[in-house]
Amino acid sequence: MIHVYMDDWRACPPGFVLARSGEECLLLLKECEVDILSLDFDLGWGQPSGLDLVHAMIRDSLFPRRIFLHSSSPAGRQSMYQALYASKPESVELSAGPVPPELLQAAAESAQE
């Protein structure tokens, strides 16, 4: 079980696997069991966005246990949230904000074990 942090420039929190693009993130979702997925919207000029990844997740039915949206783009975060909320399985937890500090700490501590 892994935690994935998708962002093109922010530092990856301890205990997470970094995906710098939607393509990398999609590959991790296909090949690994993902507990926490934290998504950014803007992934670099001319690159597919976090919403493009969300559409691929929905299309391929690739959902982790928990999804957080850490994007600083309010419109992008809202678009991703609405698409995910309408399509996610009932068992998937979805938050329109970033991973809470206590969960970040727990992920970092479990990576040290």
UniProtKB/TrEMBL annotation:
Every Cyclic-phosphate processing Receiver domain range: 2-85
Any Pfam family the entry gives: cREC_REC
UniProt-listed InterPro entries: cREC_REC
GO molecular function, one term: methyltransferase activity
Domain of life, source organism: Bacteria
GO BP, one annotated term: methylation
Keywords: Methyltransferase, Transferase
The protein, known as: Ribosomal RNA methyltransferase RrmJ/FtsJ
Organism: Paenibacillus mucilaginosus 3016
